[in-house]
Write a structure and sequence with these properties.
It contains no helices and 42 strands. The protein is an all-beta fold.
Length: 506
């Protein structure tokens, strides 16, 4: 295909390639040029020709934007021969072969960018002669630092054997950009950097050298702290990882071996004090790891055991009442279910309180205040001590205290006194020592009278995995005279309960 121009003579075009700047045709396919880029490449260095032998010459030029390299040449117009490279670059070098020595040739350089915009240079001439310039090569490209993240930079370096300066360019503009020797990561992917040396009167152009550097996106994760009341394990979390990324957990802000690799959630070892752990994100394909973020596991201390005023044993007569007042706390929970700092009672019984601290933690149970007397002059309520006696032991399948199996995770079980330890059916409440042993997970037990429809919020005894704990307390029995109580295992694991009694109220 050929066109004729009145000002520049004949322009020879390669078969199957339209040079009008609006369409590129290769191997039977075409792509229309986007309207966003219609500017053709511009020469920033005029074409130059040098002979390397009697029948070979090299044409070089430079453009302001990456484009391919083509030369149309011949001994006369129209230019019937073509040579070129389809790789996009701002540095262009095309070898012309099979030349006739001491013969003058006409030539034109053409460069087409990826959008199909075309530069077509003017027709020039050269004479095939022997060039005595020396060859040169470029050593490998290195990067400092050797890794590159999105938005960060690395510096490229390479040396030509001629000692002439090396020019760098990006062959993956969407992934990285090059300015001088500085490479900037634009998006995750493979960045290909090219090194060129165009030569001079003493040296031929060096063959192009390329080197890949992987651009990764390893941002800093967001840490989600955790807390608990009293010693035990704490669950920490992190967020921010995208596809192809995971987390690493550490006990130090730098260095050391990861405590856990992969998951966004991390369960700490048992802690007695507030501790900061650290989490990072890493690329699962390249193992490139970003910086670490601190995540704090807070151990809140429960408030001190509260007191009740008046304390000890208090008598009330028929039609009278007594006001019981708890020591200071941010919140209150009485054995009656009341949540005020004081309660007024006129019924005989055992009354205790727990207080909540400003950190939300619940205290242990106060010593009970025993109120004696009732609404009728003849009724009395008092405490009766018994020799310490084991009521229930879920470890035992037989014997007087048999209560097997262990308490199941998240389950509630009803226990019946049924005359054990000589506790009469008229007993209203018990003075007990409650012990947990063999817990497979952290949690708490709630012991309460069996005629309540649901468990109270006050914990009777909290525990952590693998640790035996005990606590004294008052255990109220069902008001229907059945001598029953319930135990709720607020835990994700099983646990054994041992319950000893040393007194009862009736």
């Amino acid at each position: 295909m050929r066109t004729k121009s009145a000002s520049s003579g004949f322009l020879a075009l390669a078969t199957g390639l339209c040079l009008a700047g609006t369409m590129e045709v290769r191997a039977g396919t075409f792509a229309t040029s986007p309207a966003s880029d219609k500017a053709p490449p511009v020469l920033t260095e005029d074409p130059a020709v040098r002979s390397v032998s009697e029948n070979v010459a090299i044409v070089t030029w430079r453009t302001d934007k990456p484009s391919d390299s083509r030369v149309y040449f011949g001994q006369a117009l129209p230019l019937a021969r073509t040579a070129g490279e389809i790789e996009y670059s701002i540095f262009h070098s095309v070898k012309l072969t099979n030349l006739v020595p001491e013969t003058t040739y006409s030539y034109r350089v053409v460069s087409v960018d990826p959008m199909g915009n075309q530069l077509s240079g003017e027709i020039r001439t050269f004479t095939a002669t022997t060039d005595s310039r020396a060859g040169q090569t470029i050593g490998p490209i290195s990067f400092v630092p050797s890794t590159l993240t999105v938005g960060a930079t690395t510096t490229a370096s390479a040396t030509a054997t001629s000692g002439l300066g090396v020019a760098f360019s990006s062959l993956a503009g969407g992934v990285c950009a090059v300015s001088g020797s500085v490479v900037t990561g634009r998006a995750a992917g493979t960045c290909t950097v090219a090194a060129d040396q165009a030569g001079n009167n003493a040296y031929d152009p060096a063959p192009r050298v390329t080197q890949d550097v992987l651009v990764v996106d390893a941002a800093t994760p967001a840490g989600i702290p955790g807390s608990r009341c009293g010693p035990g394990t704490v669950v920490l979390s992190a967020s921010g990882a995208t596809a192809g990324h995971a987390y690493k957990w550490y006990e130090a802000p730098s260095g050391g071996t990861a405590l856990q690799t992969g998951g966004a959630s991390y369960t700490t070892p048992s802690l007695s004090t507030t501790t900061t752990f650290y989490v990072s994100m890493y690329d699962t394909a390249t193992s490139y790891e970003g910086s670490r973020t601190g995540v704090t596991a807070t151990i809140n201390l429960p408030p001190a055991k509260p007191t009740v005023t008046p304390s000890g044993t208090v008598g009330v007569g028929s039609g009278s009442s007594v006001t019981l007042t708890a020591s200071s706390g941010a919140g209150y929970l009485w054995s009656t279910g009341a949540t005020t700092s004081s309660i007024t009672v006129s019924t005989a019984g055992s009354y205790w309180v727990q207080v909540t601290g400003t950190n939300g933690c619940l205290s242990s149970t106060s010593d009970p205040t025993i109120v004696t007397g009732s609404s009728t002059p003849s009724a009395t309520t008092r405490i009766y001590t018994v020799a310490p006696c084991r009521l229930f032991d879920t470890r035992n399948v037989s014997g007087a205290d048999a209560a097997s199996p262990a308490l199941a995770a998240g389950a509630t079980r009803t226990f019946t006194i049924g005359g054990r330890c000589s506790i009469p059916s008229s007993a209203k409440s018990l003075s007990v020592n409650q012990t947990v042993t063999g817990p497979t997970a952290a949690g708490e037990l709630l012991l309460y009278r069996a005629d309540l429809s649901s468990a109270p919020t006050a914990s009777s005894l909290s525990f952590r995995a693998g640790v035996t704990r005990a606590n004294n307390g008052m255990l109220e029995l069902a008001h229907d005279g059945s001598g029953t109580f319930k135990v709720f295992n607020n835990s994700s694991g099983t646990v054994h309960l041992i319950l000893d009694v040393n007194g009862y109220f009736q």
